[in-house]
């Protein structure tokens, strides 16, 4: 898509994400007694609303009660349950707006600083669902720096790290807030190289968002990246990782052409991503993948080679 993504693609991607959250929410709640539809029970108390057996979609009054409970209690068990309930309800677009209008985003956002790692994770998950709404992102962006610090300083492959990476990925679906990650690009590559398979995939999703924006191209190429990055282009690498690192190269190359940087190259230092991607070793690895067993990988490599 080159520079800024088309509005249609962005809307479709966010809608699919909300739909996936809805499916997960329904599957984890169980069937209601009596087989009735999504009736509302305004008489429920705030703590009742955190009961795992309560499977209705909350209305504005109930969400307000829940937010008050979350803000006023210091009981970690209640806080965690309230965040789970809010996160599940934030999977619905109407509630994403209501929670924002009720002032719920800063109430949830404050919990990412909690010392309890499980509470921190649940708060990040709730913010992640809320961030599907573009208007909500305007309020959530103030937490980006804190989320980045937690992602890169916390335990590798932890639930908090993955939750933070998912939130950052949602926040960079459009180009609006990508510049806020400029100082963390090298850290992203470090986590990519040291994390497990799930962490690698999540970091690559985030990097792919950045790589489609020409305004982020120089920052990506200036990043200091260990030479072991090139091992991700080996034929034995898992397909879900290999296809993404190939797409990363493809996106960056496309952006360079759009910006005319191939004709007038900025000064990149040795050890930068530029030196790795445009060195002979990387070229050899990509050429070798033409013979890969997987048709999708071969197709991606052919497309890249035609444009180099």
Task: Explain this structure.
By secondary structure, the protein is mainly α. It folds into two domains: 57-174, Leucine-rich Repeat Variant (Alpha Horseshoe), CATH 1.25.10.10; 183-307, Leucine-rich Repeat Variant. Helix content is 60%, strand content 0%. It is built from 16 helices and no strands. It has helices at 7-27, 60-72, 76-89, 93-101, 104-109, 117-130, 134-140, 144-153, 159-171, 185-194, 197-211, 217-222, 239-259, 273-277, 280-288, 295-307. The chain is elongated and about 65 Å long. Residues 1-43 have low confidence and may be disordered.
Question: So what's the CATH class of the largest domain?
Answer: Mainly Alpha
Contiguous runs where pLDDT drops below 50 for at least 5 residues:
1-43
Structural class: mainly alpha
Tell me which CATH architecture of the largest domain applies here: Alpha Horseshoe
List the secondary-structure elements in sequence, H or E.
Answer: HHHHHHHHHHHHHHHH
Number of E strands: 0
Helix content: 55-70%
* Spatial separation of the terminal alpha carbons: 17 Å
**What share of residues are in beta strands?**
under 5%
Largest sheet: none
Mean pLDDT: 87
The count of helical stretches stands at 16
CATH H-level superfamily of the largest domain: Leucine-rich Repeat Variant
